[in-house]
Amino acid sequence: MSVPRGPAYVAPSPRELKRERKRLLLVREDRLRDLGGLALEMYKRDRFNTGLVVERCAELVALEARVQEIDALLDGTVSLRGAGGSVCICSAPLLLGAQFCATCGRPVSASSVAASTASGPRE
Ligand SMILES: [Zn+2]
Fold first, then answer.
1. S-S: 70 plus which of 5, 21, 30, 103, CB 3.0-4.6 Å?
2. CB within 5 A of ion ligand 1: which residues?
3. How far is the C-alpha of 7 from the C-alpha of 76, rounded, in Å?
């Protein structure tokens, strides 16, 4: 087994985490309001753009996942290099069961596939 050596991930201090958490919650509130406005606008125009809604929801879920991750880190219940040890191609640690990287927003399956199967398609 070879472990890819990316740039070392430096764990942020609790103070930084709390600051990031606060910022993320503000962004989340903002996005949530935008999403509501967007949905209402679509309703008024009778033109629903499902893809756009899904995209916005995915962003929100990624934000929430990051907030939960920060909570876990602050609780000390999870260590960054702990169980699973899956890491996104952007070198951010991935949550167990996460669909998207909370840091860069890449879909987790795609990034882990990219990491594990570097070889071309089998034919
Ligand atoms: Zn990432």
1. 21
2. 88, 90, 92, 101, 103-104, 106
3. 23
Distance of CA 66 from the midpoint of ligand 1 (Å) = 11
What's the full length of the chain, in residues? Answer: 123
Same domain, 18 and 63: yes
CA-nearest of 68, 63, 70 to 100 is: 63
Same domain, 21 and 61: yes
Decide: pTM greater than 0.70. Answer: no
- Distance, CA 34 to ligand 1 centroid (Å)? 24
The residues pairing with 100 across neighbouring beta strands, listed in sequence order, are: 107
Inside any domain, residue 7: no
- What is the distance in A from the centroid of ligand 1 to the CA of 88? 5
Do 20 and 55 lie in one domain? The reply is: yes
pLDDT at 110: 45
Name the percent of the chain lying above pLDDT 70: 72
Q: pLDDT tens-digit profile of 84-115? A: 567 777 878 777 777 788 888 888 764 344 44
